[in-house]
Write a structure and sequence with these properties.
Chain lengths: 357, 68
């Protein structure tokens, strides 16, 4: 058991360093990784939404899925599975994304924002933890989306193959794929650096079961700290790496404060409510957006549906003006987050029975 | 002996089911899971509660024998 904990701390440290380096190599500040933002950018590149500043096929996503896929194939863990309430998962994922885009980041980016000194992420973290408590409340009352079943091998392989198609589209860059020329979507590390980063992090996350939601969830449910240690390790190493990069380059990578933080806003209440929705929804989905990507690479088609739901959620958020910007949240976004919390609560309640099965 | 069938369920559900089963304070339990993550998590949880766990692979499933 001790080895397991050492492994996840080591993986967390490596992931924190890679996350900070991706910013050095060109990603937006405090966005070495952001599963929500990157899925949103990819959805934009495919034309699912037309916000011109957030369109780019992010190689990190491709790498995460394929890295997890390769690692799972090597260890014999790749299994095509699915059929555990896919439509419910899809709907949950749409609202998780709406919550993330209220806050402007997934739980992974929340850690990186904290490590970059963004105080607004503290409000996000508080909401996130409360959202997880809400999810745990229902887990203890028998919440379940029921069993998954064995699927044909091809069913599990299609999502990883789709990532290869995305990679081809990214490299070939045909005219029908949209690439931002300004804004966060235009800021990115080179394709191969980003892809390699994704592959490494995907492999490590598969091996260690790293999950941002699972950390707090398991600590509350079972007094089990393994996953939380990975979470803390990412924060610590990204923070130290930001300080080192700042000292070496002369440009600060750690900027403590609230106002003027990169791709962030200062509305504490809505930062908290956005992440409350994300944390709550992710517990019901069984893992954070990063974990869903990793599971989709292992042949879990319920997670693949979840990732597609996240992408559709991003498209909905930008098409309906729900996503926040540096100026703050939108009124449509606030309404959507409230609806999201209501829908997620109903789904949690309806799927909770004292005796499952 | 109490038996738990947690096949097809993803974590943390197999661990919660195991936890609930262990509350009945019997001498032995059998938990059936079908993925490595669940196998690891149930094993870790039961060990932390002071139980011995033996793992037996049954085709694509894992049978975990949990004893005091």
């Amino acid at each position: 058991m001790k080895n397991e904990k050492k492994a996840i701390v080591a993986a967390g440290l490596v992931i924190g360093v890679i996350s900070a380096l991706l910013v050095f190599f060109g990603n937006p500040v405090n966005m070495g990784f952001c599963i929500a933002c990157f899925l949103r950018d990819t959805a934009g590149a495919l034309g699912f939404h037309s916000a011109p500043v957030v369109q780019y096929i992010r190689p990190e996503i491709i790498g995460l899925v394929l890295g997890a896929c390769i690692m799972a194939m090597v260890s014999g863990e790749f299994k095509a599975r699915g059929g555990s309430a896919p439509v419910t998962r899809f709907i949950l994922a749409v609202f998780v994304m709406i919550g993330c885009l209220m806050f402007l980041g997934c739980p992974f980016r929340m850690i990186l924002r904290l490590a970059g000194g963004d105080g607004n992420a503290i409000f996000g973290f508080v909401g996130f933890a409360l959202g997880i408590f809400a999810g745990v409340f229902f887990l203890k009352r028998g919440y379940t989306l029921k069993r998954s079943y064995k699927m044909p091998a091809l069913e599990g392989q299609l999502f990883p193959v789709l990532q290869i198609v995305f990679l081809i589209l990214l490299v070939a860059a045909p005219a029908f794929i949209h690439f931002s020329t300004e804004g966060p979507g235009s800021l990115h590390a080179s394709i191969w650096i980003a892809l390699a980063a994704g592959l490494i992090v995907g492999g490590l996350a598969q091996k260690t079961r790293l999950c941002m939601v699972g950390g707090i969830r398991d600590a509350v449910l079972f007094r089990e700290w393994k996953l939380l240690m990975g979470f803390v390790a990412i924060f610590a190493s990204a923070l130290v790496m930001n300080l080192i990069l700042g000292a070496v380059t002369g440009t600060p990578f750690f900027n403590p404060g609230f106002a003027g933080q990169p791709v962030a806003h200062t509305d504490g209440l809505w930062n908290a409510l956005g992440m409350f929705l994300a944390g709550f929804g992710c517990v019901l989905l069984g893992g954070c957006p990063l974990r869903q990507l990793v599971l989709s690479g292992e042949g879990n088609t319920d997670s693949a549906v979840t990732v597609i739901g996240l992408m559709v959620g991003a498209a909905v958020a930008h098409n309906f003006g729900l996503a926040s910007s540096g100026e703050g949240p939108t009124s449509n976004g606030k309404i959507a987050v409230i609806i999201g919390i209501a829908v997620v609560t109903v789904i949690a309640f309806m799927n909770s029975r004292k005796k499952a099965d | 002996m109490k038996q738990v069938d947690a096949r097809g369920l993803s974590c943390p559900e197999p661990v919660i089911m195991t936890k609930n089963a262990l509350a009945s304070k019997e001498a032995a339990y059998e938990v059936l899971v079908d993925n490595v993550t669940a196998k690891e998590n149930v094993t870790r949880f039961a060990s932390h509660q002071g139980y011995q766990v033996q793992v037996e692979e049954q085709g694509e499933d894992f049978l975990l024998r949990i004893t005091k």
